[in-house]
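Need a sequence for this fold. Nothing fancy.
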């Protein structure tokens, strides 16, 4: 299982736009095979957003990564746009 983290700083002036988009983003992630989706905002850094979920394959991760970076409507909610949309994938270092 691959764990994906997506991190970005939200443009507060675009928060309403973001909130209108995020439900469809979550639904599309599920269609791509994402499981266990969480949307988090920093307690100490309001506007710092982290999305996390899991996918089964590297191909699913890569497809999601490409889609999210190309989604200009969503990236318009982030100062710096896609350049500031950080996406990382992690695999277990140790399984217990």
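Here you go.
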């Amino acid at each position: 299982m691959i764990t994906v983290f997506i991190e970005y700083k939200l443009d507060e002036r675009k928060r309403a736009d973001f909130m209108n988009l995020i439900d469809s983003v979550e639904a599309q992630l599920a269609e791509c095979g994402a499981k266990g989706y969480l949307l988090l905002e920093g307690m100490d850094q309001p506007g710092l957003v982290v999305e996390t979920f899991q996918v089964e394959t590297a191909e699913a991760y890569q497809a999601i990564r490409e889609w999210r970076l190309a989604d200009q409507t969503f990236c318009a909610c982030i100062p710096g746009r896609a350049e500031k949309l950080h996406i990382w994938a992690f695999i277990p270092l140790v399984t217990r």
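For context: The two ends are 14 Å apart (CA to CA).
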